[in-house]
Amino acid sequence: MVYALRRPILWAADQPQIKKALLSTPLSRKVVSRFVAGERVSDAVDAVRRLRADGIHAAIDHLGEDVTTEYQALAGQQANLELIQALDDAGLAEGAEVTLKLSALGQGLGRSGVALARTQAGAIADEASRNGVLVSVDMEDHTTVDATLQTVESMRQGTPSVGVALQAMLRRTAEDLPRMAAAGGRVRLVKGAYDEPESVAYSGGREVDRAYARGLGRLFAGDGYPMVATHDPALISLALRLADEHRRTPDEFEFQMLYGIRSDEQKRLAAAGYRVRAYVPYGVDWYGYFTRRLAERPANLAFFLRSLVPG
Ligand code: FAD
After folding, report:
1. How many folded domains does the chain comprise?
2. Which of 102, 203, 230 has most ligand 1 atoms within 8 Å of CB, for mutation?
3. Does residue 181 sit within a domain?
4. Confidence of residue 254 (pLDDT cuts 50, 70, 90)
5. What is the pLDDT of residues 61-113, one digit of tens each?
6. CA–centroid distance, residue 190 to ligand 1 (Å)
7. Of the residues 8, 46, 258, 302, which has the maximum number of CB atoms within 10 A of its CB?
8. What is the CATH number of the domain that holds 116?
């Protein structure tokens, strides 16, 4: 059901006329703020502080993707440096994570884009590690995977703790995972949020779930640090069983969920002594992130459509 709806929703959200109509609609703050911490860096810091009070760490994402000019890409780097500074000023740097989308740092800008994104991401990782902040790199659509993995490998030469997201829905992940999880590599395993062709991805929900379970098995058995990024109760239970089987203590893996989704489960796991990290997006460029959340879950779409009805 969810997978059947994902493609049309992502397609519709990408149509210029629909995008324009939605962006010009005065969305109720409540709807967007369920998934997005706010538009300003101070909103992100406030969210990190609230999560910390519940024993939950944060991975903070300055929203932005597919920039079209070098100026925007440089602004993306600047925003992340400001975020690191703001976390440090608030005394929240230690244990926090900044998570980067390379397309927001210029990866897609023609021939020189990959090098530009790599330089910028490296500079962010240097500044983060000086302040005790972790860095991870998000995974975007399948055409970007090679460049993203190479960038992560180059960042790890300076900062070995740089993490990376791998998508269970991509067939190639079976081969990428052992390489990226070698020698303590931090790997965030996700199902995958993009609409991918069947030539490169599993298309059914069950197939993706099975691929995720296989990926988890390899991660927990290997040398890497598993970051179990899912809201799926069956996969969370599997991760707990695998941790037990491979005698991993609660500081040898972590659960990750999105801001505003299954918050009670995040608190429950943290209270039980597990390391939990919430992915906290903020910034004015929330459209792409928001529509992927709608595509994942029809209930989110219904919630959103209700908010458009006046009264
Ligand atoms: P789903 O199949 O969507 O949901 C499984 C089950 O979880 C549902 O049946 C339900 O029981 C429960 N559930 C889900 N949502 C809710 C809800 N709102 N309320 C209550 N129960 C719910 N994708 C990328 O492509 N690249 C990335 O870099 C990336 N980073 C991510 C980082 C984090 C921390 C997380 C959590 C996700 C990330 N994603 C990323 C998104 C991911 O790929 C999935 O699209 C998203 O997590 C939904 O998949 P799921 O594993 O939660 O399973």
Report:
1. 1
2. 230
3. yes
4. very high
5. 999 877 999 999 999 999 999 999 999 999 999 999 999 999 999 999 998 99
6. 7
7. 258
8. 3.20.20.220
